Amino acid sequence: MKMRMISALLLISLLVSLAACGGEGDTAASPAETAAGGAGEAADTAAAETTAELSESELDPLPEKDMGGFKLRFYNYDDSWLTWAIMNMDADQENGDNVNDAIYRRNRRVEEKYNCEISETLVKNTNDDIKKIIMSGDDLYELMFVYDELCASDYCAGLITTWDRMTYVDSSHSWWNQDAIDVFSLKGRQFAAVGDLSLGMATRGFVLLFNKELYKSIDGAPNLYDAVRDSTWTLDTFAAVCKDFARDLNGDGVMDDKDMWPTTGAVKLHFGSLVTGAGVRYIELNSDGDPYFAIPGNEYAMSVFEKIFSIHDGTNIYYKLMNDVHSGSNESRVIFTEGRQLFQGTSTKAIANYRDCDFDIGIIPYPKFDSKQESYHVLTSGTGVLTIPATLPDDRFENVSILVDALARDSHYDLLPTYREVVLKTKYSRDEDSAEMLDIIFNSATFDLGLSIWPDVTYYKYMESYLKMKNDFASLTEKQSKAVQGKIDSLLEALAESER
Predict the structure, then answer these.
(1) Is the dihedral of CA 169, 172, 176, 178 positive or negative?
(2) Domain range for residue 316?
(3) Cα–Cα distance measured from residue 242 to residue 183, given in angstroms and rounded to the nearest whole number
(4) Which of 62, 327, 376, 418 could form a disulfide with 444 if both were Cys (CB 3.0 to 4.6 A apart)?
């Protein structure tokens, strides 16, 4: 993209220079030449303004092509199992739902422009039959959504292929999530993509809702929106707000789900979001592009684990509803909607579950570690990512790459704004401050191999320590090092084998 954009700008500059050129020599400029020079400067300014007005798509356009009825077929999740994200890629007709209608219109625009057909096959879980579909050798789908935890192993098993032959997909464009692509790439080979053409990850980021009426009852509590803006929304601020908030409402002397709490919910959502919010990554890449376990020897990560533990240890800030790290969200939703909970962690999609609350709700990101932290981080994982089946014939790559990028571009300017502006900001959030917070949240989506590929030996293991309120982070890190390295070695061996 950068080379094509530079070429366009050089061409404009050359044309402007030729138009403005008035001759050679060292003689003083005549009034006519001065006027010509002024005209040249005006032309140069006009050209620069014209270039600035061009959209990203216009500066780097896709080729025009009549595809003669080419079929772009997606293999995708229905909403019977993967209920926590919006995965739809097609719609049969407009029905008045903002997202449905935006998807419908987008697909029809792309179909008309390229003379193609876009469709999707929806199943409960694409992971169930991917191996059978690929191993049969049948060319059934051009693109497949694979659960993020499985896409690396599917790539090593030869079920999906890399994106290097997607000629017209340039990940540096804003309609592709570069942070996600960096995570779903190993040894320079990209095996999955996250972009604006799917709302999957956009609807999966974890956020904090708060009961604005309960919050007003806290003496001296800061304006949360201002705290987010000025980077004082930190773990210390969170702890100060939550301290002494829990109340034994029924006076039975037992604090349980019938009482008032600062926050409850699934352990992996709450504690996982606090850890990621502080900027901790479980897996990083070294200078050779190899993944490594980033927690051993990481004093900052250990300080984050310790601080979050100390905030919750015996302070009645968090009520554990279930005895596993994954459950508790549905139960905590009841407590929150009944007005007995200050903060509720949820995914962006699940904000819709709270639109009928009879009190005002605010939306903010999870806190930073401290005010020195440069940006917020929103834990984003646990849904389908876009992959290319290994059975895709060579002669279909060009059309697929044009169409998938066209869908992402169109979504960047219409579908995603529709979801962000109309659905979230108008239907669910009830104030302009929360709308601003959503912009911060969407721009803070954070991806990590430890969250998306190997959560069973990283992310979930650390959440189990919080589940048990057991401060064993140092010994756990030592114990998990071997398991994590085993996962990494197996993946790198499979990658090396695939090169032979």
Answers:
(1) positive
(2) 206-379+449-480
(3) 34
(4) 376
pLDDT in tens, 74-90: 999 999 999 999 999 99
pLDDT tens-digit readout, 189-225? 899 999 999 999 999 999 999 999 999 999 999 999 9
- For residue 161, give Cα distances in angstroms to 158, 192, 197, 387: 7, 9, 20, 8
pLDDT of res. 138 = 82
The predicted pLDDT at position 301 comes to: 98
Please give the C-alpha separations between residue 97 and each of 103, 255, 349, 409, 427, in angstroms, as whole numbers.
10, 42, 15, 21, 12
Q: Assess if residue 436 is contained within a domain.
A: no
Residue 312 in any domain: the answer is: yes
- Residues in the chain predicted with pLDDT less than 50, given as ranges, are 1-37, 47-48
Tell me the CB-side half-sphere exposure of residue 320, using CA atoms within 13 A. Answer: 19
Q: Which H or E run contains 236?
A: helix 235-242
- Beta carbons of 273 and 345 less than 8 angstroms apart: yes
* pTM summary value: 0.87
> Which amino acid belongs to residue 25?
G
56 falls within a domain: no
Does residue 284 contact residue 296 with C-beta atoms inside 8 Å? no
Q: Which pLDDT value is given to residue 33? A: 42
Q: Are residues 388 and 247 in the same domain?
A: no
Residue 116 in contact with residue 454, Cβ under 8 Å?
no
Q: What is the pLDDT of residue 275?
A: 98
Task: Please count the CA atoms within 13 angstroms of the CA of 330 that sit on its side-chain side.
Answer: 4
| Count of other CB atoms within 10 angstroms of residue 389 | 21
Measure CA 308 to chain center. 24
